[in-house]
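ok so for the tutorial part 2 we go from a plain amino acid sequence to predicted structure tokens. step 1 is just haveing the sequence, like this:
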Amino acid sequence: MGQRCFQIGAIGDTLHMSIIRYSLGEMDNNTYLIVDEATKEGALVDPSFESDTLLPDILGRVSSLKYVLNTHAHFDHVIGNAFFVEKTGALLALHRLDLPLLRMLPEQGRMFGYEIEASPEPTIFLEEGQPIQLGETTIQVLFTPGHAPGHVSFLVGEDLLSGDCLFYGSIGRTDLPGASLQTLLHSISSRLMTLPDNTRVLSGHGAESTIGRERKSNPYLKDIKI
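step 2 — the prediction. this is what the tokens look like for a chain of 226 residues:
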């Protein structure tokens, strides 16, 4: 499947930050590039299938790729880690609780019929509330386990990169090893549903949404207090 690229735009009234969404592969994965417009530093979130083909476009948008940020370590979200760390020298960031999954990346791939290069070890271990500075842009880490033990989401102004925690009209799978429906719903209610309604939800698969829309109409959230 060919890649598709979407310019999501800037935060607020000033053009200080842009997010580009790349739709990749047979699982409709979203890989995101966050660009600080003042310094042209970039952060790549969840490099997925065929993400190596994005390198010319990325290097045309940023002066340096400072980070590769993983929301979690399922193979379809980290398959491009090794390539981008090697080619750009970016710092790799992941929550420590997903380190066992990351270290099993080749085994994960073989279970689904893919030959995947092992990922480098993270340079940065992410924690709840941790700020990641990208030029003049601050990326805030939200710890949102449930789909994976060390799953995190990234809040950048009014944009939430939710990985596989929250989707348009759905939530992440909890039938995988280390997953928990109760934990996932707690993450969504305590971390994500406290955000303003106009917060854009940029998920790991599929179309974008807003917190307000999901609060009102997501069928998986109707039985939790939000």
